[in-house]
Amino acid sequence: MRDGGNACSGLLCRLGEPARSVWAKHDYDTDGWLPLWRHMEDSAAVAGLLWDRWLPVGVRKLIAEALPQGELDARALAVWLAGVHDVGKATPAFACQVDQLADAMRDQGLEMRSRRALGPDRRIAPHGLAGQVLLGEWLEERHGWASARTGQFTVAVGGHHGVPPEHGQIKALYEHEELLRSPGASSEIWRAVQTELLDACAERFGVVERLSDWQRVRLPQPVQVLLTALVIVSDWIASNPDLFPYFPDGASRTDQERLAAAWRGLDLPEPWQAQEPGRSAQELLASRFELPTGAEIRPVQEAAVELAREMETPGLLVLEAPMGEGKTEAALAVAEILAARSGAGGVFFALPTMATGNAMFPRLLNWLDRLPGVAGSRRSVHLAHSKAALNEDFAGLMARTGQVEAVGVDEAETAPRPKPDEQRRAGAELVAHAWLRGRKKAMLASFVAGTIDQLLFAGLKSRHLALRHLAVAGKVVVIDEAHAYDTYMSVYLDRVLAWLGAYRVPVVVLSATLPASRRRELVAAYSGRDGGVTPGVTEAAVPDPYPLLTAVAPGGVPMVRRPQASARSSEVQVERLADSLDVLADRLESELAEGGCALVIRNTVKRVLEAARALRDRFGAENVTVTHSCFVDLDRAGKDKELLRLFGPPEKTDARPSSRHIVVASQVAEQSLDVDFDLLVSDLCPVDLLLQRMGRLHRHRRGPAQRERPERLRNARCLVTGADWTGDVPAPVRGSVAVYGRHALLRSAAVLLPHLDGGSRHPVRLPTDISTLVQNAYGEDPVGPDHWQEAMKTAGERFERHRDDQAERAAVFRLGDVGKPGRPLFGWVAAGVGDTDDSPAGRAQVRDSRDSLEVVVVQRRGDGSLATLPRLEPDSKGRRRAGIELPRDATPTPFAARTAASCGLRLPLQFSGETMDRAIEELEQLYLPNWQGKNSPWLSDQLILALDEDCQTHLAGFVLRYSPSDGLEVTRDADD
Question: How far is residue 944's CA from residue 854's CA, in Å, rounded to a whole number?
Fold first, then answer.
């Protein structure tokens, strides 16, 4: 074997033959290999390019501020750490693994026992930990560092495989020095080689003269995390043989040729460098969002832009405003300003669900199309949730990307690569870069829309957590629908906000209805200071301020702004409706006598389907539409599209039904859909969610004084059902209690009581009453009549126990708070969850939800053959998706497999707990290795639910029926 290289390279010429013989990489299939010195050079060079061309300015700035010579030191430190990260491979514990390479080292005096002889003790010295120990020894012995100061630097080496070492692991390795250096005569040769490698790296990467100054530095923990993440990314890129070929084939190129070819092959888009827009708020929003000619922006949008410019340091901005006030547009305008001021290189828009993420993605693309520095430039964009590859907008972006083969050494490419698509979704050169589509790297793209889970994972002790932190540290983070997250999720969100504050990441929090106590918690978590308002300016100073803007810098004092509400206002009459299907049908028949469109929202799918059956019997199936969460993905997306077509803004659709029509929906109608109805019937729910539902009522103006609506429905009305209103205390139905808890429902009923009793004399005034209702419902003071108090006290005590239980369980795997500067990250993710991702199991870590089963639904024909579901709509290119043959004994075509995967469905909670095991056992009886193995990336490892020709089946003691009109219906199997 030869050392390789056609000339003495920077490291090579500094090393003797024993050090040159140390190996780092080996391919068992080709017998190709890579010397350690070569991998050190490659990794360091990649780190330098990542620093210069990929890391956002804000990340570089944060690291630089921790070091005496600023960015010069920071770049040198990053390059050096990447260069030495694999020095732990110069140990017997690692080198013994490949016999012929170990023999070459033995020929140079580096004796070692065989892999079998070392046995399981090798696990005590993984090469990352070994490298951390060797680097620490070198700093102490060669440069006089105190042992207490080394760990903050060396942890980037110890943690480069995703988990910083724990103190016990470090201690155990010190007790097994034979794993670092073989005992006997060759021990000193090992030590000399290790020292020679580290000396050479210090000289080659220009840090020899800086080490004396650095030993007095106390690196903040966020900086340690970012350096570790940069080392990980550098290592992953430099470890890819497609980019950095192994020897002997790769030995002929010079350092410069090798690096240039690899960087061209990787072709990473550079980060966005925002320029602060000098325009007025009106001009800014008009230019970014195609406002109609003459349209004026909302006061809250103008105030948000002004506050973003006024903040002394970019920080957290909480924007509370009514539904339909343009909070999304305001957030993106603020993000542009804060990105320019902070050096952020992108934006992450976090939403509650996959459906809301899908709805946001095209809006994000449209914004990027008009964004300076992005429009006409090449930038990376990603949709971050587990079914992103099924989204047609995102699939179009994936199709533009070349076939970059570089994936992380610790993971495999999982998403199939679609064929190039000549249609371009956006004018900007936006790409879903192939290297950034890996499970652990997706969030590293510059612009990302995804579920809130992706952000909460940054607060979960898990492997490669540093990469998640690097991903958010370089962005502006927007958190939408902040009121939608319960105590369990809030435990993670608050910890993430604390770290984001430490990274000085600008954050924009959006909510239509946010309790004051929750606002204070968010502000305190981010700023690191207790208290949520400016001294002398409390919420009580101005009764029930709304809309409301709150801004705070890391470590700072909050600023509060109270913009005027826009001229848009409405009054909603609220009244009780008995919880009877006959009463519901009778009332709707009366209300819709002259036509009109009604929305009926139920709190459970079971209640949705019960109501739909009764209303179809009365009004006809053609006049009743059903939507809820238990549709396969394709049908669910089609439902949303159809609702927008029929009930969207008047300027965007003319297909609104001319005769009466009723939509019966679950909570899926609460968020993100811009739909407009004449009448609302809602189950009793927490008051903030009821206000969200009211946002779908008279959402748009339909003629002067709503004259284009039926005369009877020109005044907005909300009928509240889902409870027995006849007793002394309202009794919510069981399903609603299971979803929301009795405490929240009773407090909601209590604050609504004056409106329920007042009828037309005391409507809910929007937006005026929003803050009053929400603050009272979520406050500590008693609400409701005296004779309700005993029931409310009992419900409240149960709620407190539940909330404490949620917080306690969430804290088990929650990341610790930011430690003191200089304290190493040892044990940072100890007792964590291992690997996690946006799978049902991963999401269950950051959401308080029972495990649920997700299946791919197909149809089994009478002859036993399988096909995609009937009655699926064609795709955007007109290709048939219904009834596609799915061969049992062969791998389905990519289009057929993608169509089948698009019929994913999460089974309801009846299939959790003990029933889940039985359901899995029954589902696994249909095993198709050509589908569920590795041959079909779309269907790999999926459970297949095969329905009969009537789209029914039996599973775990239940009967399942599916239709594109009603979705999945589950009933007990009478024969079970």
Answer: 9
